[in-house]
Design brief:
With about 325 residues, this protein is mainly alpha-helical. Among the domains are: about 100 residues; about 100 residues. α5 runs antiparallel to α6 and α6 packs across α11. The longest helix has about 60 residues.
């Protein structure tokens, strides 16, 4: 079987090659033209992006912790509104504390203000009823008064202490993952992603390891697209985290947005500084370790060591003195 057997009768080899070339050209044109049949690909993409941003905004601003039921929350809201505390300077300070502690809902501010009002009253009334209404603890009157005042002050500062402890734990969790997140952000920016997409991508990668930092990055990406000024979104990130590393990151991003400096190079330098700072903190903790171990060593180890080493000699000395 030769090649001429595949050629139809009356056709030459040139005719066959012409038909094959024409068919290949027709298929290539169809392959290019079919994807372009959709006349509005940018419109569908814009709708998808808006929907994604809406989902991220709803998820990021949702309260992350459980609170009281609707009845308790409504009562607390009525009390706070009756005293007009939401429009005061205390409300702004409380809102910042709640954001730093990880509570983004407005109900968290209401509950914080309500607990600052209710806890002193509750502890003061309970302590007064227990000490003055019953005779379970026969103590002097001045001591009872001091205990009631002390518990009232403790009730006033208890919400503050709780918010501060929650904020400190959150800051510690955020600071541990900042260098790794910065390295991923540098990779995403050098790959050609813009800042919004890079933040979303980094948040997706670090969510299992540090959900707090992932939430902050997703919320910042949403605010960069929604707020009229991008500097406001970066400023909100700085307020919510209250970390020196995030402050440096916000300054770098703001400088890149304002002056057009190379973002990838600035982020790389910043990531190297964060890793150096983390290494220095580890070395500082290692240097403090001998001094930290001195107190438990003196209290627990040295007496046992003295008993083991000097105890037999003391016992022999006592036996010898007894024989005399």
């Amino acid at each position: 079987m030769t090649f001429s057997d595949f050629i139809p009768s009356g056709w030459s080899a040139a005719d066959l090659f012409f038909v094959l070339a024409w068919g290949a050209t027709f298929l290539a044109v169809i392959a290019i033209w079919v994807p372009l049949l959709d006349r509005q690909p940018s419109g569908r993409r814009a709708v998808a992006i808006r929907q994604r941003r809406t989902d991220l905004l709803t998820e990021a601003k949702a309260p992350k912790r459980r609170g009281l039921g609707r009845s308790g929350m409504s009562f607390a809201k009525r009390v706070v509104q009756r005293l007009e505390l939401l429009g005061s300077d205390q409300a702004e300070v409380a809102q910042r504390k709640m954001l730093q502690a990880g509570f983004r809902s407005k109900d968290a501010v209401v509950m914080f203000l309500f607990m600052k009002l209710a806890m002193p009253v509750v502890l003061g009334v309970l302590s007064a009823a227990l000490l003055y209404g019953t005779n379970l603890y026969p103590i002097p009157p001045i001591t009872k008064l001091a205990v009631c005042i002390g518990l009232t002050l403790i009730g006033f500062y208890l919400p503050e202490v709780y918010a501060k402890n929650a904020a400190d734990k959150r800051k510690q969790a955020l600071s541990k993952s900042m260098p790794d997140a910065m390295d991923l952000l540098v990779i995403c920016v050098e790959a050609g992603l813009n800042l919004d997409s890079a933040l979303v991508r980094v948040a997706r990668e670090i969510r299992l390891g540090n959900p707090e930092l992932a939430d902050e990055m997703e919320l910042t990406s949403v605010e960069l697209g929604f707020l009229p000024e991008r500097r406001d979104a970066l400023r909100n990130l700085e307020i919510r985290t209250d970390l020196p590393a995030v402050t440096a990151l916000v300054g770098t991003l703001a400088q890149a947005e304002k002056y057009g400096t190379p973002l990838a190079q600035s982020l790389r330098v910043l990531a190297a500084e964060m890793r150096t700072e983390r290494l220095m903190k580890a070395e500082e903790k290692a240097a403090k370790l001998p001094a930290t171990l001195t107190v438990p060593m003196v209290i627990f180890i040295m007496p046992s060591l003295f008993i083991v080493l000097i105890g037999p000699g003391i016992l022999r000395t006592l036996d010898g003195l007894g024989n005399l």
